[in-house]
Description:
Radius of gyration: 22 Å
Strand content: over 45%
Number of helices: 3
Order of helices and strands: HEEEEEEHEHEEEEEEEEE
Oligomer: single chain
Amino acid sequence: MKSLLHNIILFLFLSGCASFLNAPVLSSNIEYQRDIKMDIYLYVDGKFKYPIKIDGMGVIPKSKFYKVKVYPPGKVDMMTLVSCHRHLKTPHPKKSGGWFAKGYYEFIIPMTGSVDEDELCSFSTGAYEQKKGRHAWGTVAILDPKFKLSAFTKCNGDVKNYEGVSVCQSKAGLIQEYSFNRPVSFAGAKGCSIKNLTTEKPYSSIWRFLMPRGECEAYFIDIDNPRRMVHQAFFFGFDTIPIRGL
């Protein structure tokens, strides 16, 4: 009997330890990869059309309204949206009617007449789950027509052509590359600094650099036409990927 009781207690102790070890623990001092999935619809001819799929980070065209469908990795207790002008949060999606059986949360962002429309701010979304902690984040940049300098990027193994605005996410400290069809200089950034690993010159058509940690909004300019030919880049360097339970 004592042996059976001992085995039961041991089983409960080990089960409790396993549950504790599998519980998600997120630290505010760690930058987690942005991997939330979204479909963003543009407002065209009075209707929402042309969904653009975003996986963590992406660039979308300018629109009067956006309809955003967010597909979080777990259930959601709160959604947030943050731009240079707005910091919004939803009530509990189930209680507010926003959570659908298909597994996404939907909301509309009005842009007409807003500061966001004037500034064409990027915006970030966050999905937060109270019980299991399966949080997720994403960042979306809006293509601003005043940025006309295109870039060919090699970001985290992916090769893409961007018009005047780009996004790039990788683990902080890894080498990334931006190339242009003309010599450009690094005009500054919000939240980081960039050093070209390919040359000591202040200008180059190829910029190879170490991904900075956290958020960074950087600008590259054509040295011959610095006012008209500018490229805006949104970088995010993460420390680790979020480990989520079931």
